[in-house]
Amino acid sequence: MRVQVLDTIEMVFQFATRFVPSNHCIFRGVIDEKYTLIPSVGRLPILKNVFEELSREKELLKQFKMQTALKLPCLPQNDWEWLSLAQHYGLPTRLLDWTINPLVALYFATNHKPEELYNNTELSDCAVYLLISHINIDSFYPQSPFSISETLEFRAPNISERVVNQSGIFTVHHNIRADFDNEKLHKFIIPGQLKHLIKDKLNVLGVNESAIYPGLDGIAMSIKSNCFNGISYDLDVENTPNFAKSQINGL
């Protein structure tokens, strides 16, 4: 893995805006640069051996299937699709979330609570990982996700609006305890003191809570964030255009 430090706001956005889809790169933002590329199921308590851990992993997915089947309008067709759905809702899996949009990765790298981001709290350095795409599969891949022998890049069906808005994609890890690394992986470290500046610029570019999390929760999160970053919602009645004044009492 190659490591580079982006220590100015200009360097950060030069990096984030230079990629196009034909570059075949995917990105993952982490809020602390010390965070490793280990999937969530690999961070569960260690069992006696890999066989017990595999059995637990399968049991987690089995329980998820049993308890969610009646709540889903459309059932996943195989374990690949079930895993992507389970990952989306927070079940520990062997998947890691990535995105094809580097601005979305920057959003997650700076995604502190607004009261931390804008109150002069000392923040950890963050990082954006870049992986040059290598082995691409979809949910029709014939091998089981529990028996793969190498880490794969998985493009799942669009299971939710959030996945679409986040330009989501996954890596599927064959060794769930290992920190993923290879020669196609790059790590860009960003100083913590730049986080609020990055978040403000992303907001101008339309990469904010209401875009990342479509729905009422995203709108509420965006309004809360704006309370801390100085954006005002006060209505200046004196300078309201005449065509809009008739609407004031109705809002």
CA radius of gyration? 21 Å
How far apart the termini lie comes to 54 Å
What is the ordering of alpha helices and beta strands?
EHEHHEHHEEEHEEHHHH
Largest sheet, in brief, is:
4 strands, mixed
Number of strands: 8
| Protein structure class | alpha/beta
Count of helix runs: 10
Strand content: 15-25%
Mean pLDDT across all residues, rounded? 87
Low-confidence stretches: none
Overall spatial form = globular
Helicity, as a percent range: 25-40%
Q: Order of strands across the biggest sheet?
A: 1-8-4-2
Could you provide a short overview of the structure?
The chain is of the alpha/beta class and 251 residues long. It has helices spanning 9-16, 50-68, 79-88, 102-109, 114-117, 161-165, 195-204, 209-212, 216-228, 242-248; strands spanning 2-5, 25-30, 95-99, 126-132, 136-137, 152-154, 168-172, 185-190. Helices cover 35% and strands 15% of the residues.
